[in-house]
From TrEMBL:
MF terms (GO), sorted A to Z: carbohydrate:proton symporter activity
Compartments reported by the entry: Cell membrane
Species this protein is from: Arthrobacter terricola
Keywords: Membrane, Transmembrane, Transmembrane helix
Residues of the Major facilitator superfamily (MFS) profile domain: 31-457
Chain ranges passing through the membrane: 27-52, 64-85, 97-115, 121-147, 159-182, 188-209, 280-301, 313-335, 402-426, 432-453
Origin: domain of life: Bacteria
Official protein name in the record: MFS transporter
One Gene Ontology cellular component: plasma membrane
Length: 470
């Protein structure tokens, strides 16, 4: 009779340890680490190809078109993967899709080791890196909602902003590691395949993560949501947020029952409904206008830096990314103190003005152009941090994945325009007018944010989505 008593006590002790503050803090650190690791990996795979481009061109006899196909593969993949993963994560859950996404990344990254030489190499690499881009897009649409739904309101902006720092650090580390391995004579397949190591570690780290309580609420599984919150969430604010989402969902279901309609699952059409069109317009439009001038001005920046002997090499590959990363770091430090709106709107107006000056002042001193460019890089990176925050906060739980996925996909159109259209524009309309066009895009983003950007500091997700959807 004494043995069962000891067993019960042992079980009680185990449960107590699993619901302790220390256990909950470890879980939150793990969740933040695996998501930040995913964004680090995203930046890494986009940056690792640069240092070995020469080796690939020589080994595979690549022309400009073939090299462009390989480089563009991830961008196309992100455009496809973001909305697709967003739809899937709202339908099937954050937990399974978070693991499936990294599994796809692991398989695709590992496939780079086995690319053959010959005529089929370009197609192989383009397809492989396309699927890696699909996985990158999935990180935006799955990880962002998952992290926001577990984050305490008072820390949510900071935690989401850290992901962009991780992206810049990943891009810089890829350049550093790729250059060192290249200088050591490492084959290019091994260099670009180094992402497989981190993908494997992150895949293992994601095993056993719980489902999001907010997603469970959207499926009517309220008791499971509360059980997970009690076990994993330490913040009283987070418990209140989950309770508010349950109450809000019950009100929505009651209203739907009275009008003889049903609460439907996530769909792309719902993003443009009367209730949510403002959320979609702001998040997608803001993200588009933030990244389009950045990719355009990055091309112009290399020409400026070359005039001062800084273009290319370590200064170009690491220095500029470090400057942008500094803008993100400062924003992350201040975001939960000053708020979102003040760190979003003024910076956009400032960057629009900077680009306009560069565009219309044809004979500006080179040093002034350089200073203006550096200022643009810093402030643009600051408000671009909000592209990781606003979409994850503003969409309601049942649309959070598909909404963030759509916004990320729409932003890739801007990235492509900035990357590929600027050389044509410079050749056909000139450098000055091209910068005026970039200023117009930044100006449009500033107008949009001045009109729609809300203040969400310290508020629960239920409060935010309820206010912004009416």
């Amino acid at each position: 009779m004494t043995q069962p008593t000891r067993t019960t006590a042992s079980v009680d002790t185990s449960l107590s340890k699993e619901t302790s503050s220390k256990f909950k803090r470890r879980f939150m650190l793990r969740l933040v680490a695996v998501f930040i690791g995913g964004m680090f990996l995203d930046g890494y795979i986009l940056g690792i190809i640069g240092p070995v481009t020469g080796l690939m061109r020589s080994d595979l006899q690549l022309d400009a078109l073939s090299l462009g196909m390989i480089a563009a593969g991830p961008l196309v993949g992100i455009f496809v993967g973001s909305p697709l993963a967003g739809w899937a994560t709202d339908k099937f859950g954050r937990k399974p899709m978070f693991l499936v996404d990294m599994g796809l990344f692991l398989v695709a990254s590992g496939a780079q080791f086995f690319v053959t030489s010959g005529d089929g190499a370009v197609i192989q690499l383009a397809i492989i890196r396309f699927f890696m881009g699909v996985a990158i897009g999935g990180e935006y649409a799955i990880g962002g909602p998952l992290l926001s739904e577990f984050s305490p309101p008072k820390l949510r902006g900071r935690l989401l902003g850290l992901t962009l720092i991780a992206w810049y650090v990943g891009f810089m580390m890829a350049f550093i590691i790729g250059t060192l391995l290249h200088d050591a004579g490492t084959p290019w397949r091994l260099v670009i395949g180094t992402s497989t190591i981190l993908a494997f570690v992150l895949f293992l780290a994601r095993l056993g993560l719980p489902e999001s309580p907010s997603w469970l609420i959207t499926k009517g599984r309220r008791e499971e949501a509360l059980a997970i919150a009690r076990r994993y969430v330490e913040s009283p604010q987070m418990h209140n947020s989950i309770t508010e989402e349950i109450d809000l969902r019950m009100i929505q279901e009651a209203q739907a029952a009275q009008s003889s309609t049903k609460i439907k699952g996530a769909s792309f059409g719902m993003l443009f409904s009367r209730q949510y069109w403002r959320t979609t317009l702001f998040t997608a439009g803001f993200w588009f206008c933030a990244v389009t001038p950045y990719f355009a001005i990055a091309t112009f920046a290399d020409e400026v830096l070359n005039q001062f002997g800084f273009g290319g090499g370590w200064a170009g590959g690491v220095g500029l990314s470090a400057l942008a990363a500094a803008g993100v770091v400062i924003t992350v430090v201040l975001i939960d103190k000053l708020g979102r709106r003040i760190l979003t709107v003024p910076g956009q107006w400032l960057c629009a003005g900077i680009l306009l000056i560069i565009g219309v002042w044809a004979n500006a001193p080179a040093i002034l152009v350089l200073v203006l460019f550096l200022a643009f890089s810093f402030f643009n990176a600051g408000y671009t941090t909000m592209t990781q925050v606003y979409p994850a906060e503003l969409f309601p739980g049942h649309l959070r994945g598909i909404g963030m996925g759509f916004a990320a996909a729409f932003s890739r159109i801007g990235a492509a325009l900035g990357t590929f259209a600027l050389p044509w524009a410079i050749s056909n309309i000139g450098l000055g007018p091209s910068m005026v066009v970039a200023a117009a895009v930044a100006f449009l983003g500033a107008v949009l944010s001045q009109w729609l950007a809300p203040e969400t500091k310290g508020r629960t997700l239920a409060e935010i989505s309820e206010d912004f959807s009416h």
